């Protein structure tokens, strides 16, 4: 073997050794947590919904997973190749769907409500009151009336403060089961992040109905549904927005209140 070949061979051995060394420094990433891309949803019988897991950190999952429904008579659930689930609504009722690792270490859940005809929107005709109005007033292009005008492409925008609330007085007392919030057309840092939904029948004494934290919207003009565990009829509903996603402004395109049955 010539001297040049020997040097070349030694070079390859050195490179291989370095490569092995490098591999040992970077073990494969294993997911440490999982959440679902929705926390609750309402479906009509026969409707299908795809629910996606989001792994933390965002790596290809190393564990084995399964989906299950707490009440299999309400929905059929099947796992797709990308670990998402296709949920098919079968009969009226409520069920929790659960995504979990076979080793039992990770899990995430969402609540699904199935109805025969879909929820009734009771926002129409409500009177809105806010404590932080848009500088141009309630009728302005981005005034508070835009929050409930049933147009999901225009928005209410105003200065944000942690004391912020928006309130609806319904035409009659109703037991709200679901509310929706639609993100603005831009600037996700202006989206609401944490809030409490409260109900009242005199506008003075309030009962906490739902609390959410660490919320965000992955798309613009995206509507997210939130289920409320509430049987009582209230004339007033109020959203206390305790945090937004970092801006000194806040914006919401639409807030709707829905009733499944009351
Ligand atoms: Ca609107």
* Helix/strand order, N-terminal first: HEEEEEEEEEEEEEEEEEEEE
Total DSSP E strands:
20
The CATH class label of the largest domain is Mainly Beta
Which blocks of ≥5 consecutive residues have pLDDT under 50? Answer: 16-22
Helix tally? 1
Structural class: mainly beta
- Compute the CA-based radius of gyration: 25 Å
Largest sheet: 5 strands, antiparallel
Biggest sheet: strand arrangement: 11-13-18-15-16
Helix content: under 10%
Query: How many separate domains make up the residues?
Result: 2
Distance separating the two termini: 91 Å
Q: What is the 3D shape?
A: globular
CATH topology category name of the largest domain: Jelly Rolls
Average pLDDT reading:
92
* CATH homologous superfamily grouping of the largest domain: Galactose-binding domain-like
What does this structure look like?
The chain has 262 residues and is mainly β. The protein folds into 2 domains: 83 residues, Immunoglobulin-like; 140 residues, Galactose-binding domain-like (Jelly Rolls). 9% of the residues lie in helices and 44% in strands. The protein contains 1 helix and 20 strands. It has a 5-stranded antiparallel β-sheet with strand order 11-13-18-15-16, with no helix packed on it. The longest helix has 23 residues. It is globular. The chain starts with a helix and ends with a strand. About 3% of the residues have low confidence. It binds calcium ion (CA). Calcium ion binds next to loops.
């Amino acid at each position: 073997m010539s001297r040049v070949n020997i040097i070349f061979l030694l070079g390859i051995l050195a490179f291989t050794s370095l490569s092995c060394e490098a591999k040992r420094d970077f073990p494969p990433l294993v997911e440490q947590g999982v959440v679902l891309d929705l926390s609750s949803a309402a479906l009509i019988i026969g409707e299908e919904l795809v629910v996606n897991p989001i792994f933390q950190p965002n790596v290809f999952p190393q564990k084995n997973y399964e989906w299950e429904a707490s009440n299999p008579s309400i929905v059929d659930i099947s796992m797709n190749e990308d670990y998402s689930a296709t949920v098919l609504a079968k009969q009226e009722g409520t069920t929790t769907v659960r995504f979990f690792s076979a080793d039992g270490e990770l899990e995430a859940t969402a609540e699904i409500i199935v109805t025969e005809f879909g929820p009734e929107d009771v926002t129409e005709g409500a009177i809105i009151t806010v404590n932080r109005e848009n500088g141009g007033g309630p009728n302005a292009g981005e005034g508070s009336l835009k929050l409930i005008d049933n147009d999901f492409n225009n928005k209410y925008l105003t200065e944000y403060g942690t004391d912020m609330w928006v309130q609806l007085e319904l035409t009659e007392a109703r037991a709200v089961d679901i509310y929706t919030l639609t993100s603005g057309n831009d600037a996700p840092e202006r989206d609401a992040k944490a809030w409490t939904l409260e109900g009242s029948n005199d506008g003075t004494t309030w009962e906490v109905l739902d609390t959410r934290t660490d919320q965000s919207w992955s798309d613009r003009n995206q509507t997210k549904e939130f289920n409320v565990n509430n049987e009582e009829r209230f004339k007033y509903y109020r959203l206390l927005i305790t945090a937004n996603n970092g801006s000194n402004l806040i914006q919401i395109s639409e807030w709707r209140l829905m009733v499944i049955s009351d």
